[in-house]
């Protein structure tokens, strides 16, 4: 049996893509291994979002090349494949700099991998596929199967927003929505193979406008009809494109979890404008209020960028102030990273590294304090948790509350991949300790 080793960087969409590549190779008889030494195919799925993410690629290729060299000495054939967003942005550079790489494919071309591998011959030239094809890769990929009770499903890809700092519109291409029919058939496949929760993915998931439903809210209503599916989530949402129907779905649909990831990036209207974000801080607050009106317990999370070009102390204080106003359950925050080819990278008033660091530390301290409060507020409550992983400690299982908080529990292993009622006993800033509630009620 041939083996493939896959290492994934970047966002949930990349994790989903890696699973689909694994499916495509499974049809060719490859099984996935966690041990690169025994793999005929070594695949890196890359991310270009910040400089640090992209830089990792070349050191990773170096490491895989050592394995390839040892395997070649033993007479074992080995291919190194690089996929993902760095390939879309810098594919030629990768092939030029890293001679060990055999095949490089962009995010819209990976459905062609089995064919490229089958016909690959280094003597005829290494392969770069990084255009935006007219066909959709989804029409060519084999059916997928869930590998855990919580599964990802990409419903929308690409971005037309062109925030001035971001590479995604260039690496993923323009917005594309899959049809409701295609999505529902994949969701049924996932549920039949063991998924209890589905996370709908999109670079701007609420900009979904595929055939067969009026908006994301309507699509969620249709997906909620699937028997055996217990939880629905979606990410990432773009603030100004939230429809009333989506807000209302949080009131009407029990399976839709009370959590929304709604990145604001900055609390300063001046900076939001320079970022080319299509909303003001006031409009963002209003959207949060609409969600809270129908679902008062909804947990809100966000992404933040500090040190965007021209960000003054006052602008940064506005970000701190909006964080205090919203009260986040959890968040991701980053130092602005200038990316080649984006307008913001050419802006004159770049912020120094020292100032970025200082602002990031202050923001993260505030966000962590809020997260801790949110976790502590769970103590004493009994909540349904989907147990998806085994913990490091013997007999420990890990899962997520409806609010996307991590909960640990000592429980028999047959409860893995089940939704159980847990009584929360203790909280830290990043996790909850719990015990099984009197009867282990499977929801
Ligand atoms: N489409 C989503 C975000 C996708 S990228 C949205 O618009 O909200 C994920 C996150 O990476 C962004 O929300 C942003 O906070 C961060 N990010 C993107 N480009 C960045 C850059 N050049 N420097 C630092 N952070 C960046
Ligand atoms: Fe990037 Fe902006 Fe598109 Fe999000 S909306 S993917 S931040 S360009
Ligand atoms: Fe990275 Fe591409 Fe996702 S740049 S964040 S892997 S869309």
List the main descriptive attributes of the protein structure presented here:
443 residues; alpha/beta; Rossmann fold; OB fold (Dihydrolipoamide Acetyltransferase, E2P); 3 domains; five-stranded mixed barrel; binds S-adenosyl-L-homocysteine; binds iron/sulfur cluster; binds FE3-S4 cluster
Architecture blueprint of SSEs:
Elements: E1 2-8, H1 12-27, E2 30-32, E3 41-46, H2 51-73, E4 79-84, H3 85-97, E5 103-105, H4 113-118, E6 127-129, E7 150-154, E8 156-157, H5 168-171, E9 176-177, H6 180-192, E10 197-201, H7 216-223, E11 231-235, H8 244-252, E12 259-261, H9 269-274, H10 281-294, E13 299-306, H11 313-326, E14 330-335, H12 353-376, E15 382-390, E16 396-400, E17 406-410, E18 419-427, E19 432-436
Parallel strand pairs: 1-2, 1-3, 3-4, 4-5, 5-6, 7-10, 10-11, 12-13, 13-14, 17-19
Antiparallel strand pairs: 8-9, 15-16, 15-18, 16-17, 18-19
Helix pairs in contact: 7-8, 11-12
CATH H-level name of the largest domain... which superfamily?
Answer: tm_1862 like domain
Number of strands: 19
Query: Strands across the major sheet, in which order?
Result: 2-1-3-4-5-6
Specify the helix fraction band. 25-40%
- Whole-number tally of structural domains: 3
Number of helices: 12
- Overall pLDDT, averaged? 95
CATH architecture of the largest domain: Alpha-Beta Horseshoe
Strand residue percentage: 15-25%
The 3D shape can be described as globular
């Amino acid at each position: 049996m041939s083996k493939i080793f896959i290492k994934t960087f970047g966002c949930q969409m990349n994790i989903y893509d890696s699973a689909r590549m694994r499916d495509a190779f499974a049809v060719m008889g490859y099984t996935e291994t966690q041990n690169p030494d025994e793999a005929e195919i070594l695949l890196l799925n890359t991310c270009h979002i910040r400089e640090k993410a992209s830089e990792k690629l070349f050191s990773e290729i170096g490491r895989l090349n050592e394995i390839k060299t040892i395997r070649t000495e033993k007479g074992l054939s080995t291919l190194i494949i690089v996929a993902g967003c760095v390939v879309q942005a810098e594919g030629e550079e990768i092939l030029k700099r890293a001679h060990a790489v055999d095949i490089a494919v962009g995010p819209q071309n990976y459905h062609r991998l089995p064919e490229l591998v089958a016909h690959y011959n280094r003597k005829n030239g290494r392969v770069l596929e990084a255009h935006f094809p007219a066909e959709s890769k989804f029409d060519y990929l084999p059916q997928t199967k869930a590998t855990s009770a919580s599964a990802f499903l990409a419903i929308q890809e690409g971005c037309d927003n062109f925030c001035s700092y971001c590479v995604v519109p260039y690496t993923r291409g323009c917005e594309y929505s899959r049809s409701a029919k295609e999505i529902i058939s994949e969701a049924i496949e996932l549920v039949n193979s063991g998924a209890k929760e589905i996370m709908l993915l999109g670079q701007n998931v609420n900009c979904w406008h595929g055939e067969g439903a009026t908006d994301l809210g309507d699509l969620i209503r249709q997906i909620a009809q699937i028997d055996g599916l217990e939880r629905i989530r979606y990410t990432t949402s773009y603030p100004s494109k939230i429809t009333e129907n989506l807000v209302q779905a949080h009131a009407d649909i029990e399976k839709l979890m009370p959590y929304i990831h709604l990145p604001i990036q900055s609390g300063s209207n001046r900076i939001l404008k320079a970022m080319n974000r299509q909303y003001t801080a006031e409009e963002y607050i209003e959207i949060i209020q609409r969600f809270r009106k129908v679902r008062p317990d909804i947990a809100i999370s966000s992404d933040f960028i500090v040190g965007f070009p021209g960000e003054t102390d006052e602008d940064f204080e506005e970000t701190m102030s909006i964080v205090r106003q919203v009260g986040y359950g959890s968040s991701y925050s980053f130092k602005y990273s200038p990316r080649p080819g984006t307008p913001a990278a050419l802006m004159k008033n770049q912020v120094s590294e020292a100032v970025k660091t200082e602002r990031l530390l202050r923001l993260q301290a505030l966000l962590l304090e809020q997260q801790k409060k949110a976790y502590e507020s769970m103590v004493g409550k009994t909540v349904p948790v989907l147990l998806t992983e085994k913990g490091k400690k013997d007999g420990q299982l890990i899962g997520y509350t409806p609010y996307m908080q991590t909960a640990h529990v000592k429980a028999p292993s047959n409860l893995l991949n089940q939704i159980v009622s847990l009584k929360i006993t203790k909280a830290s800033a990043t996790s909850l300790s719990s015990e099984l509630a009197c009867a282990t009620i499977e929801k």
